[in-house]
Design a protein that fits this description.
Number of helices: 10
Bound molecules: (R)-mevalonate
Order of helices and strands: EEEEHHEHHHEEEHHHHEEHEE
Largest sheet: 8 strands, mixed
Helix content: 40-55%
Shape: globular
Structural class: alpha+beta
Strand content: 25-35%
């Protein structure tokens, strides 16, 4: 039996297809090299102790009974629900200590909740030597996320598990790894934290009010994603930039861009980027651009001048990894 296991899972950035992927369309996501570390340890006490400094949780202790009932403080609802579902699924209940450590700020929208969910479930499966395929891990993670926030396509969980750059269809119905090397990615943070469920709801309201028009937008986004998949494989960054611009236009039509996002996006384009768009739910968080090498610095400066913060991340990062275990 193992006594302690540490795993790490990467964050993600959506390249193409956000929102439409909630409605059964494909998207393209890349894992980024900012990681969430999860350390799980067995203890002999009938409690779970949690330290999660990135969400301000220090030495939180709860009984296994409260855990079973799902009585968690909101800061640890992904972590807690993941443990609850693991114990329920595999008929286990043991004392635990869980510690998380994050390279990235939850504000960036890099998917800290999905990385925690995947990290906790993987750490527990290693700790209790429960065999789980990546698909089983995805399914339990997806169930956990839907239980906590009711909406989501699961694309962020797939990135946390498999890493790399993925063509992904809602709920993992399709998952293809893309050979996307040397993506010339620039990332700008708006300084505004976005709330994904609120933005998904906003699009849902628009969809209910104008089903035909919004269906047509989703269809156009799906076409862009399919073209981008080909262009990514061929390393056609100019074409990808154009596709980013068209995708951004459609996201504006869905009403999820903001003045700040649009101004960072326009600044990046003016400074010589191939193209730029928001990444994720919109409403804030990050924008992304593809920029030629010679224009990269100018693009970064333009984003900063427009009030954004440039975040240095490497795309196409490694997926879930067991860092350390102790018998
Ligand atoms: C949020 O980062 C991306 C959305 O498409 C939601 C999801 O796919 O879960 C808006």
């Amino acid at each position: 039996m193992k006594e302690r296991v540490e795993v790490s899972a990467p964050g993600k950035l959506m390249l193409f297809g956000e929102h439409a992927v909630v409605y059964g369309r494909p998207c393209i996501v890349t894992a980024v090299d900012q990681r969430m570390m999860v350390l799980a340890e067995r203890t002999s006490e009938e409690v779970m102790e949690v330290n999660a400094p990135e969400v301000g949780v220090k030495n939180l202790v709860m009984t296994l009974n409260d855990l079973k009932k799902g009585n968690f403080p909101s800061e640890i609802r992904f972590l807690g629900t993941a443990v609850k579902n693991f114990f329920k699924n595999y008929h286990l209940a043991f004392g635990l200590k869980i510690k998380t450590r994050s390279d990235f700020l939850a504000e960036f929208g890099f998917g800290s909740s999905s990385a925690v969910t995947v990290g906790v479930l993987k750490a527990l499966s290693e700790l209790f030597e429960v065999k789980m395929t990546n698909k089983e891990l995805f399914d339990l993670s997806y169930k956990t996320v839907l239980e906590v926030q009711s909406v989501g396509s699961g694309f962020d969980l797939a990135a946390a598990i498999w890493g790399g750059t993925l063509y992904f269809v809602t709920g993992g119905k399709k998952l293809v790894r893309l050979e996307a090397k040397d993506l010339p990615l620039v990332v700008g943070y708006t300084g505004v934290k976005a709330d994904t469920p609120t933005l998904v709801k906003k699009v849902k309201n628009l969809y209910q009010a104008h089903p035909k028009s919004v269906e047509a937008i989703f269809g156009a986004i799906a076409t862009i994603v399919k073209e981008a998949r080909q262009a990514l494989i061929g390393g056609e960054f100019k074409r990808l930039g154009m596709l980013m611009n068209i995708n951004q236009g459609l996201l504006e039509a869905l009403g999820v861009s903001t003045e700040k996002l649009s101004s960072l996006i326009l600044a990046a384009r003016r400074a010589g980027a191939y193209g730029a768009k928001l990444s994720g739910a919109g409403g804030g968080d990050c924008m992304i651009a593809f920029a030629p090498k010679e224009a990269r610095l100018e693009v970064e400066k333009a984003i900063q001048k427009a009030g954004g913060k440039v975040i240095k991340v490497q795309p196409n990062a490694l997926g879930l990894k067991v860092e350390e275990e102790e018998k």
